[in-house]
Structures are given as structure tokens and as C-alpha cells.
Amino acid sequence: QVQLVESGGGLVQPGGSLRLSCIASGNIFSINAMGWYRQAPGKQRELVARITNGGRTNYTDSVKGRFTISRDNAKNAVYLQMNSLKPEDTAVYYCNAYEILFRNSSTYYYLPHGDYWGQGTQVTVSS
What we know:
single chain; 4-stranded antiparallel β-sheet; about 0% helix
């Protein structure tokens, strides 16, 4: 069992900045990949950025140079620094964790499927 909790969303003017945070809790030993997705009204959910355990990152073209993803493995946390925000960035942002290695005492195990999501946090960019 795992819980992902996002924070940091809100209302900001164009050109402003926000920093999103996501903390995973549970009997977690390590997480392979973590990322941020977003869903705007009337559109499908899309990948914004992701980062692997080894620190390799990937961004969708529309946010390159403006957003930065990072993680703190000791805290099971992932962050998204968003600068130069545009109205088209308005969406619900979701935290994702994939392939979690769980630990219970001396027992280590993966659960089937291994794809977990937070509840989402609203980001609105408007004048």
C-alpha cells in the first residue's frame, strides 16, 4: 500500500512561478521512476516530466527550459519547479510513482502492476 500526496498548486499570473511537491508514504524501500502529469479541461492526461532513480529526466517539449523536475530519494519525494508560467499550463497536475520496491522487515517485494497516482493539485495561470 502506498499514498502519494501533492501540494503547491494555486493561482498565479502569467510569467509567475510555482513549485509542486509530492511525497510518497508506505513501506517503501525505493522507487524506480517518479513523474508529473497534467490534465486540462476537455483534454487527455499528458506527461509533463519524469525522473528515474538514477536521475535521468525527460520533459515534454512545451515545458523545456521552464520546468525542472527533481527528487529526494531519502524522503521519497519528487518536485516540479515551474517558471515562466503560461495560461496553457493551466491543468490539474498529478504525481506518479512507478515500480516501487517495498520492504517489510527483511522481506523485499514488488506489487503487481506498480503504477501509483496522487489525488492531483490544481494549477491556474490567469491574469
